[in-house]
Amino acid sequence: MRRWLADMFERWKHRNDPLDCPACKEKASPRTFLRGRYKTVSEPIACDRESCKQINSAVLWRAAAFTRIQREILEREVARLPR
Ligand SMILES: [Zn+2]
């Protein structure tokens, strides 16, 4: 029972986290996002881009999106620096 609850919490906690494909670095399509948003760390998500079709675990999809967002924030900061 406890295990089941922990599993449900894990799925719920990350449901709004962005997903990027770790292979082609593209954002998940709306369809892939719907399919992948409730996956736990080790469950696979398949990229639906014709040129990619790679399968990676959900944690890698979330890490790829996190890395992109960090980079976008840094680029915005750099653009604001005086020259
Ligand atoms: Zn891909």
Question: How would you summarize this macromolecular structure in one to three sentences?
Answer:
The protein is mainly alpha-helical. It contains 3 helices and 2 strands, in the order H-H-E-E-H.
Number of domains: 1
Overall geometric form:
flat
Mean pLDDT: 95
Q: Which strands sit side by side, in order, in the main sheet?
A: 1-2
> What is the number of strand segments?
2
Strand content: 5-15%
Number of helices: 3
Helix percent band? 40-55%
Largest sheet: 2 strands, antiparallel
Q: Give a list of the ligands.
A: zinc ion
Unreliable spans: none
- In whole angstroms, the N-to-C terminal distance is 59 Å
What are the main properties of this structure?
83 residues; mainly alpha; 2 strands; 7% strand; binds zinc ion
Describe this structure in words.
With 83 residues, this protein is mainly alpha-helical. It has one domain (2-80). The chain has helices at residues 2-13, 30-36, 58-80, and strands spanning 44-46, 55-57. 14% of the residues are buried. Bound molecules: zinc ion. The site of zinc ion has 8 residues, from loops. Residues 21, 23-24, 26, 47, 49, 52, 54 line the site of zinc ion.
List the helices and strands and how they pair.
Layout: H1 2-13, H2 30-36, E1 44-46, E2 55-57, H3 58-80
Antiparallel strand pairs: 1-2
Bound molecules: zinc ion.
Zinc ion binds next to loops.
